[in-house]
Write a structure and sequence with these properties.
disordered N terminus; 29% strand; Beta-Lactamase; single chain; globular
Length: 143
């Protein structure tokens, strides 16, 4: 698993980033295990802040040099009103699913390295990523 996160400038921000990373990591593990895909990622952006990327992948993707291509594709979806996009990106075949909360937005990726996603996996990915994104976005709401 590889994680890229913004550096937090205060103790409160560090706790928030750490909490998000823990929840995001668990949601990506759930997606990967339930859907049996090679790669799952989530790009999360609280309003007014920079985006944070968390990638959970299997051993078949460890040596890929084109991860920034994947990030650019996710960022493009994050910055538009697009809700879903099929992708052939960085040697992966999959789907991106965008979500919005009251104070944040995000994009989930599910992808396979060896074959296109089956429609049932894509449909399940859409549903699960929406449910998991709702949990992640809820963390941005004031307590």
């Amino acid at each position: 698993m590889a994680t890229i996160a913004n550096i937090a400038s205060s103790d409160k921000e560090r706790r928030t980033v750490a909490g998000h990373v823990d929840v995001i990591t668990v949601t990506l593990e759930l997606l990967r295990d339930m859907l049996a895909v090679d790669c799952c990622a989530y790009l999360h952006q609280p309003l007014g802040e920079g985006a944070r990327l968390t990638v959970y992948h299997g051993p078949s993707l460890v040596e890929r040099p084109d991860g920034f291509e994947l990030l650019r594709g996710m960022k493009t979806v994050l910055e538009t009103d697009e809700r879903e996009r099929a992708i052939e990106l960085a040697g992966l075949s999959g789907a991106l699913f965008a979500s919005n909360g009251a104070r944040s937005r995000g994009v989930h990726l599910i992808a396979s390295a060896d074959h296109p996603l089956e429609s049932s996996v894509r449909d399940s990915g859409r549903m699960l990523s929406g449910l998991l994104a709702a949990v992640i976005h809820r963390l941005e709401d004031p307590w």
